[in-house]
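Reminder: ligand-aware prediction takes two inputs, not one.
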Amino acid sequence: MIAVLKENATEQQIRNLTEWFESQGVKVNRSQGDFVTILGLIGDTTKIDIDLLRGLDIVDNVMRITEPFKKANRKFHPEDSVIDVGGVKIGGGNFAVMAGPCSVESEEQIIETAKAVKEAGATLLRGGAYKPRTSPYDFQGLHEEGIRLLLKAKEITGLPIVSEIMSPEQLPVFEEVDCLQVGARNMQNFDLLKAIGKTQKPVLLKRGLSATIKELLMSAEYIMSEGNPNVILCERGIRTYETYTRNTFDVSAISVLKELTHLPVVGDPSHATGKASLIRPMSMAAVVSGADALEIEVHTAPEKALSDAAQQLKPDEFKGVMEAINKARSIL
Ligand code: PEP
Ligand code: MN
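Here is what comes back for the chain with phosphoenolpyruvate:
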């Protein structure tokens, strides 16, 4: 439930009303604009008499909202959130590109790729050290060594790093990682979400393979309700009956999320399509759909990649995609 207060509500009146709500067992999330104060009520609001509330002098309007996500909801927080990832801002007009290999494979590979993506205009370096593979016999990542190599690449290029975390026990290893990626397969790993929620680390939360937009937002809510507001959402394709592409890029989800939430939204054309040839058009589509950032896989020698070989771009191809992205941005 949301209570929009009248412009002339005094601080004392707002405090009294807040205390009354709290005495009814609901938490109050206050959003202060230049003119209007909005009180978002979190919890069981069934006991609150909406007509009584509407009758109060300082109340302008009261709305029951059906969405169970409160902290991620744009209704409570109309302005875009801007998330700082190691000095790079994402959201609210700040556009970012996270690029790098699917997996960190060697020192030479990650450093060469980091230099190449930086040169082409990427603002963050991505790379998996813990890989959630469908088969237990496939390459599982370099683990701690992979994180160490990413940090080395950061030291050389200055690019903040994004890497996937798979369990709460790994948090100490990610101490110096700028952004924790929660992969599609872990979008509803609630213990992981809660543990990350207790930190203040920026999180790139990827949409689950078969998750609805609301389920993605509820997962964001898990992180935010523990006290971490630094959540960035990612559309990375969903499972449909189509098999030509690896997944189906739900581009409209980017625009829908921009309407529903103030959190930044990232488009990942690499996992959405699984095909290097589709990265350029789908990057442009994500940009014009309102994405605040893109995540794109780049490898110095994709044909030799230990994971996701078919979707990774060579550095010169990535350069071309960056030019297309800039062109798409210029028409917005
Ligand atoms: C990845 O980013 O390499 C990855 C595994 O992504 P997703 O969780 O979206 O499949
Ligand atoms: Mn990948």
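Residues 315-330 form the longest helix (16 residues). The CA atoms of residues 116 and 315 lie 6 Å apart. We will return to this case in the review session.
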